[in-house]
Amino acid sequence: MKVYEIGTQQGLSSLRAAERPALQPGPGQVVLRVRAVCLNHRDLLMLQGTYGPRRPETRIPVSDGVGEVISLGDGVQGLSLGERVTCPHFATWLDGEFHPRWFAEDLGISRDGWLAEQIVVPADALVKVPDSMTDTQAAALPAAALTAWNALVEVGRIKAGDLVLALGTGGVAMLALQLAKLHGARVAITSSSDDKLATARELGADFTINYRSHPDWAAELLRQTGGDGADIVAETGGLATLATSIAAAAPNGRLALIGALAASPADGALQLQNLFGIVGKNLTLRGITAGNRRMLQAMVRAVAAAGMKPLIDREFAFDDAAAAYAHLKTGSHLGKVLLRVHQY
């Protein structure tokens, strides 16, 4: 079977194709034929060697995907050959609270991921994909969408009428927009591109802010909303945007700290005076990863029931994986970048 490996982790050129024997499942495992995968920002960081410690050069990357069951290991029940399934990228985090031990079984990072014609995963981790859901819908859910779900539902306790603030127009932010609208919430979103903001409005964004035109985008949000702050902030920028996110938050707001996509923390870094904003507004700041199987199963049901279609910026063939990574690195994408592994 064909796979991709992260190689020497010196940049995009490190991605390399390789051939391996077909996989065999162990007890309690399932082999999937991979149908489609989606890329995430951390896939770029892996190739650059900047996502935690360097990994073995033979590691297969990518954490988002959907596949069909082609082989069952001993003791596996409740699954049939040919069923389409997906799973959280923390393959052993099935339910309950987060623990750092889940990092030991992180698809595409600490164990082989989806960028291959086949993948082997624990059967207990799998979530069945409804017939009404396409591969394109399902491939975008296990990492970026599950992170957004965790931020909005688990941390944010989202309810209809809440105001959700999403930073940027990458995978997590656009999925946060779509999931928030699914829950009947209002959404504000930021970008440096008016064209991307126009698309966000087409997807239901209630308030859009170009942060180049409005460097103090917290003040602009308050102006547009008549003084309302954000009840939930999906904070993907990191230290460079956290102070402004605190200023943009409503009293009793919940900030889910997800990533660090913004460049320099220089002027926006969290300062002592921001403690007044945190304490004075009774804010909750919580760092999150993605989510567990229970969360993924709930999200799959919600997405299927609503017919939500994650925004896909562009599709690539499996043989064009390097081009897909290069496109993601440009930052010009809006939503997710998808690769078709097996065509149906």
From TrEMBL:
<keyword id="KW-0560">Oxidoreductase</keyword>
<dbReference type="InterPro" id="IPR052711">
    <property type="entry name" value="Zinc_ADH-like"/>
</dbReference>
<dbReference type="InterPro" id="IPR011032">
    <property type="entry name" value="GroES-like_sf"/>
</dbReference>
<dbReference type="InterPro" id="IPR013154">
    <property type="entry name" value="ADH-like_N"/>
</dbReference>
<dbReference type="InterPro" id="IPR036291">
    <property type="entry name" value="NAD(P)-bd_dom_sf"/>
</dbReference>
<dbReference type="InterPro" id="IPR020843">
    <property type="entry name" value="ER"/>
</dbReference>
<feature type="domain" description="Enoyl reductase (ER)">
    <location>
        <begin position="11"/>
        <end position="339"/>
    </location>
</feature>
<dbReference type="Pfam" id="PF00107">
    <property type="entry name" value="ADH_zinc_N"/>
</dbReference>
<dbReference type="Pfam" id="PF08240">
    <property type="entry name" value="ADH_N"/>
</dbReference>
<dbReference type="GO" id="GO:0016491">
    <property type="term" value="F:oxidoreductase activity"/>
</dbReference>
<protein>
    <submittedName>
        <fullName>NAD(P)-dependent alcohol dehydrogenase</fullName>
        <ecNumber>1.1.1.-</ecNumber>
    </submittedName>
</protein>
<dbReference type="InterPro" id="IPR013149">
    <property type="entry name" value="ADH-like_C"/>
</dbReference>
